[in-house]
Amino acid sequence: MDWLLLIGAGLLEVIGVIGIQRVAHKNNWTNNLILIAGFILSFMLLSNAMATIPLATAYAVWTGIGTVGAAIVGMFFFHESKSWLRLLCILGIIVSVVGLKYFG
């Protein structure tokens, strides 16, 4: 169950990052709500997940999901680069996070 909370926390971090991007383009109530709610809910789930998941693993997985998620959202919704080197780096993050789960 705590791993589901951690995955949810990572996905909500991506929502928070989307909120940051939206606020950067148009600072209004809705975009600020997306930013704040995404991060608050993300931290709440991360905190609950860390009841049984070690700090280093939980934080690495949380930031890995957030980093990969933000990069993918940036590529598909904000027209950021989709170069093969960038995709290779994203794959490296995924492999590292999976490695922490299975070898930690």
Automatic annotation (TrEMBL):
The keyword Transmembrane helix applies. Keywords: Cell membrane, Membrane, Transmembrane, Transmembrane helix, Transport. The chain crosses the membrane at residues 32-51, 58-78, 84-103. It is a multi-pass membrane protein. It is found in: Cell membrane. InterPro entries: EmrE-like, Small_drug/metabolite_transptr, Small_multidrug_res. Its main location: membrane. It comes from the Bacteria. This is DMT family transporter. The lineage of its organism: Bacteria, Bacillati, Bacillota, Bacilli, Bacillales.
